[in-house]
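Tutorial handout. Part one gives the primary structure; part two gives the three-dimensional structure as tokens.
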Amino acid sequence: MRSLTRLAALLLLCVSVSVVAQDDPEAEARQRVAEDIDQLEEPMYSPFIERYMLDELKQLRIDLSNQRAELIQQVVDRELNSVDRGVTYATNTVTYFFYLIAAVSSILVLLGWNSLRDIKEKMSTLADEEVGKLVNAYEVRLRGIEKQITQKSMHIDANREEIERTQEIHSLWLRANQEQASANKIAIYDQILTIKPDDCEALTYKADVVLELGEPQWAVNLCQQALSIDSDNAHAFYQLACAHTSLGHYEEGIHFLAEALNRAESYRESLMQDPALFPLHDLPGFQELAGNREEE
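Part two.
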């Protein structure tokens, strides 16, 4: 009931009124805008917009991939530098220990201690303990670096999956806007809900289609699901008003219509033109809502 063509027409209506109101009388401006709207024969839609969005998403995926490669390369370089410094430090430490051993052995020989074997064994044990401590410390640091790399990789994969998911949903919305058959539209909205179950917009637009197929109770259930996700969804309240009107529940229809208008004044433009609300036109509640519109 509110297709892309009507949205474009309303936008043209607002722009034309703002321009013509500066030069011509109000009556002539409305007449010209009405003539421009009547001459529209197809949606104001260009496939270049879709192409532009898909190219932008593709470029974003390429940039994320390049960023991931650069991040991994930087982490690997830092890891190699850390290992090199650790090995150099360990080698220097062992060398200094051997120098110390030689100095102490010389002192002990001069002092008359003949058990050089004992000295060698003790110093070798001490050197092994120090080297072992250094190795353990660097192993802990390397495990930390590996954990960070794993977390970054998981984050990059999650972003890539989200981009692919968003791109797929965008393509499905484009298909739904171009589809004419109601059954095919419902199938597309079901695919969107399979990918993103909490998509209120898909639920309300599906309710719009099933209402056109003469299934108002189904539309009511879909709108209730949307309101359970977003309790202030104006589109869901509007669809509930249309569905209850089709079921003959006129009081509920007026109630939900008022809720929709409280959340989005833009729906006042559709009060008198929407065929689903025609049965409400003679009711006092609806006339009150329409009267509020005229006063505004």
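Part three, for discussion. The chain is about 80% helix and 0% strand. The chain has three domains: 1-45, 47-175, 198-295.
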